[in-house]
Amino acid sequence: MIDLHCHLLPGVDDGARDMEEALALAQLAVEQGITHSVLTPHIHLRHYPNTLESLTPHFHRFKKALAQRAIPLQVALGAEVRMAPELLLGEAWKGLPKLGSTEQGRPVLLLEMPYSHVPAGTAQLLRWLSSQGVQPVVAHPERNREIIAHPSLALTLKGTGAWLQGTLSALGGSFGVEIKRVAWELLDKGAYHYLASDAHRIDKRSTRVEHVLQMLTEGLGFEQTQVLTQDRPWAIVASRF
């Protein structure tokens, strides 16, 4: 699996609390079949005012620690960016960490909505980013309360040209029956461009993904599961590794 959404970088957001937990998550990821991970710490002005410059030293320390422990997880630095005008409009998006790029060379940017609702103007913002040459990805739409009530809203966002990223643990039921139902509905409708772990901590929302991958293989078949967890993610990040 190629994981394009995880919070393994220690001490910078609500993910891994320290280096030991980060390394434990990385070791578990390897054991579960994850070979490459793009680390996506939150960038959120109010709670996690991270920047590419502030995150880079943390990334290099983590990469060095992986090598010292001989943990064969390949990593790159990205971010999960809160969908806010201050972070995205004008030239601001250019300074944000990207996941990778499309086959056409468009930078791929992972975006997060609030869980409570789909903010007014979200579709317009996604279209504007596309007009700037960006490929936006909307993280875990299945966990947004407004989309839970009206799953077709996720398809409306996809209709802007944005990609949607589903979360494996949501498909596995870790967030409850209702979110699992919406996640599988979106999956069945072909809404997701790829799936990721969104791993945070070793004791909750970890990199333990093998059982959900098995469920997907049984439900979708091996080829489609590979498209969602390996082929499409790798097409985005191949140039980074």
UniProtKB/TrEMBL annotation:
InterPro entries: Caps_polysacc_synth_CpsB/CapC (IPR016667), Pol/histidinol_Pase-like (IPR016195). One of its GO terms (molecular function) is protein tyrosine phosphatase activity. It comes from Ferrimonas sediminicola. It catalyses: O-phospho-L-tyrosyl-[protein] + H2O = L-tyrosyl-[protein] + phosphate. PANTHER family: TYROSINE-PROTEIN PHOSPHATASE YWQE. It is an enzyme of class 3 (hydrolase). Signal peptide: none annotated. Belongs to the metallo-dependent hydrolases superfamily. CpsB/CapC family. Keywords: Hydrolase. The keyword Transmembrane does not apply. Its EC number is 3.1.3.48. The keyword ATP-binding does not apply. This is protein-tyrosine-phosphatase.
